[in-house]
C-alpha cells in the first residue's frame, strides 16, 4: 500500500473528487438540491445518510461521493474511514469543512498487512486533501504509530522474537539519536532474575533480554515507558490449551505500544527525558523451564512464589518496573497484554487503566476521549493485596480465587513501582477480533493515542 505520508496532502487546488457529508437528519435537505437523476441514484444505492453509508453519484463527465456521518459538527477519527475503504483510488476533498481529526481514520483505513500475502483489496491509494497543512504531519505520525503496533503484533512469533523487538528499538535509536542498552545472558540472570527465569527455556535465537532506550535532555522531567514483550506465550508448564495459545503471538502487544509511543514522543520532540524499557522473552516449555511452586529472586530483592507459570507477564514487568523506578521518574506508564479478566470485564475495545492517583486517570481518560481512544479505569483495591500473600515467599504471582484478576495483577505490579512515583498501567488487548471502519481485524492499538496526547499536553514541544 502507499505510505501514510502519501495519503494526506496539502490542498493546493489540485483536481479532486468532492465528498459531501450528510446525516440522516440533513439528508432530505441535501437531496432537494440535487437533480432528479442524482436523487434516484442515491435511492438506488439505498443511501439515507446513516453513519458509515457511502454512495457514488454521476455528475456530468465525472462523479462525486456522499458519506453518512453521525455528527457534522464533530468529525471523529473514523467518520471518513468507510469512504477511504470503499471509494476507488483517487484524490478527494471535502465539499465543505476540514477533515482534521478524521485524517487519522482515512489513513488507518488503508492499512494492509502484506508481509506474507498480497492483499486482495484494491490498494490504489485514496488521497485526501486538506487546507490545514500544519495538522497533516501530526496526523500522519499518529497513524504511522498505530500501524506500527499493528505490524508488530500481526507478525508471527518466529519472525517477531526478542531479537526482532531489539532490532525495532535499534531502528528508533538510530532515527532519533537515542542511546540503547541491551542486557542478556549471564548478566540478565544476575541483574534481572525474573526476566531470565521466564525466558530461559526458549531457543537460543529467542533468548530473553531487557532493552532500554534513553532520549532527550537529561534536565527535562524523566518519563519511563515500559512494555511487556512476551513474544509467544505457551503458558509455560501450566500450558495453555490450543485455543488459548492460538493468538499468543500478540502477547508482545505491550512492547509494540511502548515502542510506538516512544516513536511519537521523539518525533514530536516532547520536553521530557524518555526512558523506554522492553523486557522481552518467549515463555516456552523445556526441561529448564521455571515451575509452579518455584520461588524466584527479583531485582527489587523481593521473593516471588510461582502460583502459575502462565502469569509470566507480571514477572518480567516487575523487574523492568524496578529498574525504571531506580532513576526516580516523574511519571511511569506501562502497557501489557496482561489478563483475560480485563477482556471479560471490558471487551476487546476498551483498555483497562489502573493508576495510583485520580489525576493520572482523569488526564489519560480525557485525552483518550478527545481522540477516540478512551480507556476505562479499574481499581487497585488495598483490600485485595492480601490475595497475593505466600506462605514461603514475599508474594505469589497468582491468587487462588477467581475474582478481580485484572486488579490483582495491577496490585502485583504496584509492588515493584517505587514509592511516590506517579504510575499508570494499561491492560490492553492489542488485538481487534472484528473489523470496524478504519480498524482492521488483527493487531490493534488501544490506549496509545490517549497516552501520547496526555504526554503532549504535559510536556509540550517547544
From TrEMBL:
The UniProt record lists the keyword Plastid: no
Domain named Cytosol aminopeptidase: residues: 308-315
PROSITE patterns recorded: CYTOSOL_AP (PS00631)
Pfam families, A to Z: Peptidase_M17 (PF00883), Peptidase_M17_N_1 (PF21337)
Keywords on record: Aminopeptidase, Hydrolase, Manganese, Protease
A GO CC annotation given for this chain: cytoplasm
GO biological process: one example: proteolysis
Keyword set includes Hydrolase: yes
A GO MF term: metalloaminopeptidase activity
Family named by the database record: Belongs to the peptidase M17 family.
Name of this chain's protein: Leucyl aminopeptidase family protein
Annotated source species: Pontixanthobacter rizhaonensis
Amino acid at each position: 500500500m502507499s505510505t501514510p505520508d502519501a495519503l494526506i496532502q496539502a490542498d493546493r487546488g489540485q483536481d479532486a473528487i468532492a465528498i459531501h457529508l450528510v446525516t440522516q437528519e440533513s439528508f432530505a435537505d441535501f437531496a432537494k438540491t440535487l437533480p432528479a437523476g442524482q436523487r434516484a441514484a442515491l435511492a438506488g444505492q439505498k443511501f439515507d445518510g446513516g453513519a458509515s453509508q457511502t454512495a457514488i453519484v454521476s455528475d456530468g463527465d465525472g462523479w462525486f461521493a456522499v458519506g453518512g456521518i453521525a455528527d457534522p459538527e464533530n468529525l471523529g477519527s473514523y467518520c471518513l474511514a468507510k469512504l477511504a475503504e470503499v471509494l476507488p483510488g483517487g484524490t478527494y476533498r471535502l465539499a465543505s469543512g476540514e477533515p482534521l481529526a478524521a485524517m487519522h481514520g482515512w489513513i488507518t483505513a488503508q492499512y494492509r498487512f502484506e508481509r506474507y500475502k498480497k492483499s486482495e483489496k484494491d490498494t490504489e491509494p485514496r488521497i485526501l486533501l486538506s487546507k490545514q497543512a500544519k495538522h497533516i504531519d501530526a496526523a500522519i505520525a499518529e497513524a504511522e504509530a498505530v500501524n506500527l503496533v499493528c505490524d508488530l503484533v500481526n507478525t508471527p512469533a518466529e519472525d517477531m522474537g526478542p531479537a526482532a523487538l531489539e532490532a525495532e528499538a535499534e531502528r528508533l535509536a538510530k532515527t532519533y539519536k537515542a542511546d540503547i542498552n541491551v542486557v542478556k545472558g549471564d548478566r540478565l540472570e544476575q541483574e534481572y532474575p525474573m526476566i531470565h527465569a521466564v525466558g530461559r527455556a526458549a531457543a537460543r535465537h529467542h533468548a530473553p533480554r531487557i532493552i532500554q532506550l534513553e532520549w532527550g535532555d537529561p534536565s527535562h522531567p524523566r518519563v519511563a515507558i515500559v512494555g511487556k514483550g512476551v513474544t509467544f506465550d505457551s503458558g509455560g508448564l501450566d500450558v495453555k490449551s490450543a485455543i488459548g495459545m492460538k493468538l499468543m503471538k500478540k502477547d508482545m502487544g505491550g512492547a509494540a505500544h511502548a515502542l510506538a509511543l516512544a516513536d511519537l514522543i521523539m518525533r514530536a520532540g516532547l520536553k521530557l527525558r524518555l526512558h523506554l524499557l522492553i523486557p522481552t522473552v518467549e515463555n516456552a516449555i523445556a526441561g529448564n523451564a521455571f515451575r509452579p511452586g518455584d520461588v524466584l529472586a527479583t531485582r527489587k530483592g523481593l521473593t516471588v512464589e510461582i502460583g502459575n507459570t502462565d502469569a509470566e507477564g507480571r514477572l518480567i514487568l516487575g523487574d523492568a518496573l524496578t529498574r525504571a523506578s531506580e532513576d526516580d521518574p516523574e511519571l511511569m506508564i506501562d502497557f501489557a497484554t496482561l489478563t483475560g479478566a480485563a477482556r471479560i470485564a471490558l471487551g476487546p475495545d476498551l483498555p483497562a487503566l489502573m493508576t495510583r492517583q485520580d489525576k493520572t486517570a482523569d488526564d489519560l481518560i480525557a485525552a483518550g476521549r478527545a481522540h477516540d481512544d478512551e480507556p476505562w479505569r479499574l481499581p487497585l483495591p488495598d483490600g485485595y493485596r492480601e490475595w497475593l500473600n505466600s506462605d514461603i515467599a514475599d508474594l505469589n504471582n497468582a491468587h487462588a480465587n477467581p475474582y478481580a484478576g485484572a486488579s490483582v495483577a495491577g496490585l502485583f505490579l504496584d509492588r515493584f513501582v517505587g514509592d511516590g512515583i506517579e504510575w499508570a498501567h494499561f491492560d490492553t488487548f492489542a488485538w481487534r477480533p472484528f473489523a470496524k471502519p478504519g480498524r482492521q481485524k488483527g493487531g490493534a492499538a488501544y490506549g496509545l493515542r490517549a497516552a501520547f496526547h496526555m504526554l503532549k499536553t504535559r510536556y509540550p514541544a517547544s
